[in-house]
Each structure stands twice: as structure tokens, then as C-alpha cells.
């Protein structure tokens, strides 16, 4: 796979440039779109519903929200776009020696690139408002690889499934919508009734969001809940995804 790194780089670059080709604002859309979601969710959940952040590391709902929203958007984009990565590139997949895994990996990394851009802007905002903390930032070096592994693994699974069953792409949108609200992104986990907290802790994205909050808000590794479960799940999903994708890849040309 190492010999395909240049090809992967070109696919990521092409995806990044092609996404905004012809638009007046270009890559600024990668900031405006999550910014709009941030403003919308902040208004609804901090002004209309007035969710309390008692016990959290910040009193700003916008900051609390954005810590979890950034990795979720990258995860959502990576998984949802992976579902059509094979079917939309049938001419490449039919080539005998083309490494089709790159199609999934490139869209996942494309989402991560936008996440990193938004993260840089977010850190600047934290610095301006006086909530910037150095000590938690090394946790990003742990959170990001775990996030990528889980996204790629799920991406390979849904890409394989959608190649054979085209309804998967439609179903996936519904699943991801439900998954978002079952992840404590727009509400603190501690405000969920205890009977349901354990159910949410089974969700690996709960631990990932918690890890990012610890990273951006000056926390520490021991405070991140469910980290072992998150790591095991991400590794397991990655292994299953690679196994399934490579096992079914020879059949792709017949289905395209």
C-alpha cells in the first residue's frame, strides 16, 4: 500500500479542489458550512431549549458544541461519501491493478482535511475568548488516528454493501441521523437519565466526542470515558472492513 501513497495524495487533492471548483468562495465553504450548523445548534439548544452546562469545562455552549461537532462532521462525511465511492468510480474499479481501497481512504481523509482547517480556526477563537489550553492538545494525536480508523473501517463496509445493494446509501442517511442524536454532541452526557447513560456509553462516538472535548478544553486522558472501548471498537471495525472489502473486491466489476 505504501507504493500507492502518491496516488492517494492526488485523490485527496483532487477531491479537495474539485469540491469547490467554480464556486466564488472556494474552500471557505469548509468553514461556512460547519459555522452555520454551529450557529443554528447554539441558538436552538442554548437559547430556545436552554441546555445547562453545569459541571462541564466551559460555560459557552458554542465551544462545548463545536468540540464534538467537528469530529462528527468529518465522520459523517467520510462514511456517507464512502458508500458511493465504488459505484461512482466504476471505470477505475474495473481496472485489474487499481487499489480500490484508495477511493474510500481518500474521501475519509478529505473530510479530515476540512476538520483540521476548522480546528485551526477553532483554536484561534479559543485563544481570543481566553479559553485556550495547551495541556489537552496532545490528546488530538490519539483521537484523530482512532477516528480515521473507525471511519475508514465503516466506510469500507458501507462501500462494499452499497455496491451489491444500492438501497444502503438511502438507509445510511437515516442511520447517521439517529446516530447523531444518540451521541452527546448537543447535550452533556451527565444530563441524560442514568438508565440511558449506559446505553449511550456503548456508542463509540460518545467516547470519541468526550476525548476531543478533553483535548480542546484542557482536560487529561484519565478523564476521557470509554477510551478502551473506543479503541477496541475502532480497531475491530477497521479489521472487519478491510477483510470484507478485500474479500468482495473481485466481484465488484460484475456489479458495476
Short description:
With 256 residues, the chain is an all-alpha fold.
Structure description:
The mean pLDDT is 87. It contains eleven helices and no strands. It is globular and about 55 Å long. α1 packs across α5. Helix content is 69%, strand content 0%. It has one domain. With 256 residues, it is mainly alpha-helical.
Descriptive terms for the model:
11 helices; 256 residues; globular; 69% helix
DSSP strand content? under 5%
Low-confidence residue ranges: none
Average residue-wise pLDDT = 87
How is the main sheet built?
none
Q: How would the blueprint of this fold be written?
A:
Blueprint: H1 5-19, H2 29-48, H3 61-82, H4 90-93, H5 101-129, H6 140-164, H7 168-181, H8 194-202, H9 204-216, H10 227-248, H11 252-255
Helix pairs in contact: 1-5, 2-3, 3-5, 3-6, 3-9, 5-6, 6-9, 6-10, 9-10
